[in-house]
Amino acid sequence: MPERSLGVDVGGTFTDVVAQDERGLTVAKVPSTPSDQAEGVAAGLARAGVDPAALDRFVHGTTVATNAVLERTGARTVLVVTEGFRDLLEIARQNRPKLYDLFADRPEPLIRGELVVEAPERVAADGTVLGSFDDDAARQVAEAVRRLDPEAVAVCLLFSFLQPGHEQAISRALGRAGAPVSLSSDVLPVFREYERASTTALNAYVQPVMSLYLGSLERRLRQRGVRCEVEVMRSGGGTFSADLAARSPVHTLLSGPAAGAWGAATVGRRAGFGDLVAFDMGGTSTDATLIEEGRPRTTSEGNIGGLPFAVSSAEIHTVGAGGGSVAWRDPGGALRVGPRSAGADPGPACYGKGGTEPTVTDAYLLLGMLDPSSHLGGSLELHPEPANEAMGRLASSLGMEPRACADGVLRVLEAQVSKALRVVSVERGRDPRRYALLAFGGAGPLHQGPLARELGFSTVIVPRYPGVLSALGLLASPAMTERVRTNVREATEATAADLAATWEELASDARQTLSKQGVESASMTRSADCRYQGQGYELEVAAPERDAVTGEALAEAFVAAHEDRYGYPGPGQGIEIVNLRVRAEGPPPRFEPPEVPAGTGADGGILGHRAVVVAGQERDCVVFDRDALGRGDRIEGPAVVAGVDSTCLILPGQTGTLDGAGNLIIREG
Length: 669
Prior knowledge:
Helices cover 30% and strands 28% of the residues. The protein is an alpha+beta fold. Strands 13, 14, 15, 20, 25, 26, 33, 36 and 37 form a nine-stranded mixed beta sheet that branches. The chain has a six-stranded mixed beta sheet with strand order 3-2-1-4-11-12.
C-alpha cells in the first residue's frame, strides 16, 4: 500500500495540495493567504478531504523565506565582521546590474552599516591566527551586539571556514537567551567572503520569520490531528525536517520552484523522457529549468532580489510573467505584461474581488480559453463583466479592440517565456529538438503550442495534474542533505587518499544529519568544484564512479564539463580543485501514482464546443473533460482539455495522446 502522504505547495496565487493514499491521488487548489500562509495550508488540508491522523508523511513547499527577502520584512539583523571589513555587504562585487546604465540601482544590503559590529580578530589565508582574540574580546563584541537590540545575528569573520574558533567564541558570548545566531562557518564553510557573508546574512534575516511560521504551522496541524513530522522542500531538491528548516532557512529560498523541477523530472522519467526543458507558469511568475538524465540541474550560485546565496539550489531562470500578471501601457505606447502581479487578493478582475487591472487570466476568459461557467481551481468563480471592462480600458488606451488587445497580451507573455526557455536551453548549447518540453502550472499548458513551435520542440508533455505538479514533486522527493568544504589545491597534487578522507568526513556528517530525521541508509554522491588557474569561477563536476578518485581524474572530468558548458575545453593551463562536496540522499519515497484505465475513445470525454481565439483567429474547439479520458485516447487540435487544476489548449496541427500515467503527450501532425 502506498504511503498516506500529503504535499502542500504555497504559491503567490494558489496553494496546491496533492494527497496520496490507498485510493490513489487527490488534488485540490485553494487561494493562498499571503497574510498567514498557514491558513491556506489548513484550508487545503480540509479541501483534500484526507484524514489528518492517518498521514504518514507531510511535505511542504513554502515561499515564506522568499517573500521575507523580496518584501524586506525579515528580522532586524546585526552583522559581526572582522575589524576593517564593516562595508563588506555594501561593497559587494563590482559588477553592475546593467553594464551601460550609469544610473542602475543596486539592491540595498539586508543589513545597514549602523547594524554592523567589528571584531578585533584576524586569521590568515592559511588558517593561522594573527594576534589574540580571547573570551574577554568575544564578550565585548557580544555586548556591542546586544546594544543594537537585534532580532537575529549573523557572524562572518575572515577565513573562518579554516578557523571557526573565533565565530564560535562570539556565539558562546552571545548566549542562548538572546536572538538566534547564524555562523558562516556553519552556514557556508567555503571561501569568498562576500558570498559567504551574504548567505549568512540571508539565513539570519529570515530565521525568526521562518521559525515563527513553521512553529505556527505545526501547531495548527497537530490541532487537526496530524502526527507525522513536517518536512520542507530544499532549494537544491530533496527535503529536510521542519526543525532544520527553521534553523537553516536559507536552504528554502527556492523551495517552491525546486519542488516543481523535481515533479517535472519525476513525470518525465516515468513517461520515458529523461531530458526535458520544463516551465512552470503560475499566477505570479514562470520558472524554466533544464532536466538531464532525469534530474534537474543544480547550482551553488543562487540569487534572490539581486542578493547572492551560495548554497545548492535548482538551476532555474524566472521571469515575472504568469496568469496574474498585469497588462499595461508603457509611456512609449507599447503593450507590456508584468512583472507586477494582481496576486491572490484582489487578484485578476475576473475574480470579482475588486481587482480593476487587466491580467493574463482576464485575457484567457475573453478569448474563450477558460469557461466562465466553470470554477478556476475547482472553487473560484469567474466573472466576465469586470474582465471585459478592465481589458476594454487598456485596449482603448492602445487604440485596439478588446479581444485583439487580449490576444496581444498573450503574445507579449509568450515572448517573455520564450526568452526564459532559451536561457536554459539554447544559450547553454542545448538543441531543443533533442528535448521534450514539459508544460505545467495553472497557465503553462495554455501556451505549450506556440512556445514549442517557436523553439523547435517536437514533443510536449502535459502532466496529468499540471496545475499541482509542484505539490506532486514534494511527494516524490527523498530526504536529502549536502556538505561542502573549501580545500584549494592543484589537481595534480590531490591524491586519492586525501580526496577520499575529506569526502568521508563530509559523508559522515551528512549521515548523522539524516539519521536525526529517521533516515538510516543513504546514497552518497561525491563531486568537486574545479577551475582553470586564474579563473574566478568554478564548475561542479561529479566524481567518477570508482573507489579511488585521483586529482587527475577530476581534472579530466572538469575539462569535459567546461567544453560542454562553454563550447571549448579551456586555455590549457593547470586545473585547481576548490571545493569538495557530498550529497546524501535517502531512499526514494513510496510514490505510486495510479495508472489510468484504457480509454474508450476521446469522444466519450467531450463536454461540448467553444469558440476560442487561436493565434488571432476564432476557431471552433472541442472541449474535453481531462478526467474522462483514458489511456490511448487521441485528440486532434484545435481542442481544449479542461481539468480541475489546469486547462490545456491543443493547436491545429497538433495531436495529443494519453499515456498510461495520464500524461498528455502532444506532437505535431
